[in-house]
Amino acid sequence: QKLIHIKFVYTALCRTFGPSNVGGCLGSRMYALNESFVTGIESIDGEHHDLVALLNRVDVAANQGDVEEVRSALENFRRQLGDHFVEEELYLSIIRYPQLSAHAAQHAETLSSVDALISALPSGRAELQALSQHCFHVLLHAVLAMDLHVANWQRSSARLARHVHHATDRGETYPGQTGEDIAISDPAARIATAAE
Q: pTM value?
C-alpha cells in the first residue's frame, strides 16, 4: 500500500513537471526542520534535528539511485526513530500526557509504515526520490505535528496552573472550582485536612 502511494506521488510529479524533470525537482535541496515544528522541548527538538539529518542521507542515496544505500540509511532512520519514540513515550508518561495512548499508537503506525517501505524498496531513481519525499513530508511531518500537540498541551497546562495559583491566592474562583478546592488551596487548610 505504501509503495502504491509512492508510485502515485511519482506519477503526479511526472504529470506536473515531466518525467525528465522529476529528479531535479525532488533532489534540489536538503531537508530542514521548519521553525514552525520546533516544540521548545530541547531533548525532543534535538532528536527531531537528528532524524531530519538521517533523512537527508536517505535523500542523497536516492538522488544517486543507490538502492542499497537507501536501504541502509532508511534502516538507520528507522532505528533512531524507534529509540526516539521509546524516550518520548517515557517522557509523556512522566508528565502524565492525557493523549499518551493515541500518541503511542501513532508511533507504532509510523514504524510499521517505515518497515513496509524498507521491505518493498523501489529500484528506480525517481521512485526512490519520491520515497524520500514521502518519509519527510508525510511520515516525519505527522510525527512533528503530534509532538507540537504535546508542547501546546504543556504550555496550556502551565498557564492554567499559574492562573489557578494566582486566583486562589486572591481568594477568587475559576470555572469549575468548588469551595472545597479553595479550602484545600490554603496551606493551613491542607495541613488540617491531612491531619484528619
A: 0.68
